[in-house]
Amino acid sequence: MSTSTTTTTAVTATTEHELQDYSHSSATEPDDRHLQTEQLDALNTGGVQDSDNVASAIPDDQSPGLAFGLASVRLTRLVGARLGAVAGVTLLGVAQVLSGFTTSQVGGLFGLSGVMVGLGMSLLYTINNTLPTQYFSSKLGTANGLIKFGGGIGATVLAIVVELLIERVGIPWTFRIIGFITLSTGIPAALLLKERTRGRNAPFLELAMFRNPAYTAVFIAAALGAFTLFTPPYFLPLIARSVGLSSTTGAGLVAGFNACTAIGRLVSGPTCDRIGPTNTFLITMLLSAVSMLAIWPFSSNLPLLAVFVVLNGIANGSFFVTMPTVAAAMFSPERAPVAMSQAVTGWTVGYLVGPPIAGYLIQATAAESKSSLDPYRPAIFYAGGLALVSAVFVLIGRMAMERKVLKRV
C-alpha cells in the first residue's frame, strides 16, 4: 500500500460513516490473554463496516507495528516486559482517544492510528510472543493458543460492539471509548506481567539464522501467507451483498469468521504440542488454500459462504499460533524472541500490499457493482494461490527438518 494514499482513502470511507480501516490490534501467563485481546480485538473488525471503496480495506496500523518488531524486542530486553507492556498499552490507548479528534484529518490519523498505534501494537505483540517461551517448552503451543484465544474472543465481541457504537455515538466517540477501555483494562494487566529471565545482551538481528534452510523456508511461507490473511474478512461483506445477502448478514459472516479464528487459535495450540508445530503450520496453510480455491469461488449462497467462513476462519486463527511456535521451536529460548520477531517482521510487506492487491483486482472488474460472484474470482484465486505457495514452502521447511512423514516436527 502507498501509506498516504491508503490513509486518505480510509479517511474518506470514515467520513462516510464507514470504519473500514479501524484495526487497532494490540503478552506472561493469564494476563497475556487480556493484552492479546486488546491487541487483536480490532484486527478483524474492519470488515464489519463494509466500504464501497474496496481499495481502502487495508490494516494500516498493522504494518508499522510489524516493521518495528525487531526494535521492540531490543526495547523490551532493555526495560523489561512489564514496562514495555505498559508503554505499549499507553501508546495504543492514547492514540485511539486522540484519533477521535482527528477523524477528518489525514495527517492526524496517519500519525495516531497509523504510527502510534503501530508502535504500541508492536511492543505488545512482541511481548505476547516472547514471554511464553520463558515459562513453557513442551506445552508452548498450548500456551500460545490460550493467549491468542483471548484475542479471538475480543475480536468477535468488538466486531459487534464497534458497529453498535458507530451507530449510536458516531466514529469519533467510538475511537475515544475504545481508547479509554484499552487504558483502563490494559495497564492493570500489564503491571501483572513478570519475566523469569531477561537477556539484555541478545542481538538486535541474527541473519545467521537464515543459514538454517528450514527457518528460511518457514520465513518465506509466513511472508507469503500474510498476503492472504485479511482478504476474506475485509471483502466478505461486499461479496455477501453481491450475491444478494443483506448487510446484516455480511456483518454476521464477519463476526462468525472472527469467532472461528478464536476456535482456530484454541485448537491449534494443543495440536502443535501433539503432532508438532511445523506439521500443524502445514495443515493450516493447506486448509487456508483449499478453502479459498475449492469453496470460496463457488460460494454464491449463504450455506457455502458459511462453510468457507468456518474453515478459513479456523485456518486464519491457527496461523497466528502456529507460525511463532514454529520459529520458537527451532532455536533456544534465548534466541527464540529474535527468531520470532524476524519472522513476524517478514509479514510487513504482505500486510502492506496483500489486501490492496485484492481490492484493486476487485475494482478492475467492477465487482462491487455486480450481483454475481464471478468478478471476485481473480481476487479469490490470487489469495488462494499465494496460500498454496505458502504451504509448499512450509512443506520444504518441514522436509528440511525431518523427511519421515509421520514424525512429530
From TrEMBL:
Residues 1-35 are annotated as: Disordered. Keywords: Membrane, Transmembrane, Transmembrane helix. Pfam families: MFS_1 (PF07690). The chain crosses the membrane at residues 83-101, 107-125, 146-166, 172-193, 214-236, 248-268, 280-298, 304-331, 343-367, 379-401. Residues 214-409 form the Major facilitator superfamily (MFS) profile domain. It comes from the Eukaryota. It is a multi-pass membrane protein. Coiled coil: none annotated. Residues 1-14 have a biased composition (Low complexity). GO terms for cellular component: membrane. It is found in: Membrane. GO terms for molecular function: transmembrane transporter activity. InterPro entries: MFS, MFS_dom, MFS_trans_sf, Proton-linked_MCT. Belongs to the major facilitator superfamily. Monocarboxylate porter (TC 2.A.1.13) family. This is Major facilitator superfamily (MFS) profile domain-containing protein. It comes from Friedmanniomyces endolithicus.
